[in-house]
Specification:
Blueprint (H helix, E strand, L loop, with lengths): L3 E6 L3 H11 L4 E7 L3 H11 L2 E3 L2 H6 L5 E4 L6 H10 L3 E4 L7 H14 L3 E3 L7 H11 L6 E9 L4 H5 L14 H5 L1 H11 L2 E9 L11 E8 L4 E7 L9 E6 L3
Parallel strand pairs: 1-2, 1-4, 2-3, 4-5, 5-6, 7-10
Antiparallel strand pairs: 7-11, 8-9, 9-10
Helix pairs in contact: 4-5, 6-9
């Protein structure tokens, strides 16, 4: 069994999750990590293994790295992903893949041209509950699909947004409760229901004073299969509520 050798770019909270997950995969090996701070990269590799880099050019030139795992802030994904494609390396990219369609298009085109793979991280497609729902939908268990919804009624305090100096900014976060917190629920909704035909939505920042993105978003959808749907995502609601995805039809 081939061992896939992976380098991580961006040292922060999420990179530790990546490193720990890689350690659980028999045919994956972490061989490098990059940070603009060599000290941070060295501390990371001392714990998880691999070589430490503070030069992106040297990191991309490392022939041992086959796959690049991008863990930088969302608005910094494109440059790294395109550089990886030019270096002939596959990419696993944290969500959201980028903060604009133009940047995402540039990333996908670069990897198409290079013949390399670009993968976003959407783990809910692999959990048991979502897959059971997917099998039920595909088998017609709910009859004619009529309604579906994704709800993410969460709270985030100002401390959350202040961490790292980029969360809640247009430049590097690109969006808030919808793009960041609700993305997995929205992805699950579209995976289960199919493409959306039309949408009407509102967003606003209602409970935070020092962020540039939405903390409340609601949308009404019409799917191409004719069903109607709702999306609600917040970081403005008193804590204690749970994320959920609902699929309904005339038989279940």
């Amino acid at each position: 069994m081939k061992t896939h050798k992976i380098g991580i770019i961006g040292i922060g909270m999420i990179s530790e999750f990546h490193a720990k997950a890689l350690a659980e995969i028999p045919n994956a090996e972490l061989v490098a990590a990059h940070s603009r701070s060599l000290e941070k990269a060295e501390k990371f590799t001392a714990e998880f293994g691999g070589k430490a880099y503070d030069s992106i050019d040297e990191f991309m030139a490392d022939p041992e790295i086959e796959i690049v795992s991008i863990c930088t802030p969302s608005g910094a994904h494109a440059e790294t992903a395109i550089a990886a494609a030019k270096a002939g390396k596959h990419v696993i990219c944290e969500k959201p893949i980028e903060i604009s369609l133009e940047r995402i298009d540039a990333m996908t085109q670069a990897h198409a041209d290079a013949g390399t793979k670009l993968c976003g991280i959407f783990p809910y497609r692999f959990n048991d509950v979502t897959n059971e729902m997917k099998r039920a939908v595909d088998a017609g268990r709910f009859g004619k699909l009529t309604f579906a919804a994704a709800h993410v009624p969460w709270w985030r305090d100002q401390k959350y947004y202040d961490e790292g100096g980029w969360k809640g900014t247009q430049q590097l976060d690109g969006g808030g409760a919808l793009m960041n917190q609700s993305i997995h629920a929205v992805d699950s909704l579209i995976w289960l229901m199919g493409d959306v035909d039309s949408i009407m939505a509102y967003t606003d920042c209602l409970a935070h004073d020092n962020i540039e993105v939405e903390d409340t978003a609601v949308a009404c959808l019409r799917f191409k299969n004719g069903a109607l749907g709702l999306i609600s995502g917040t970081t403005s609601i008193y804590p204690g509520h749970f994320r959920r995805v609902e699929i309904c039809g005339n038989e279940g």
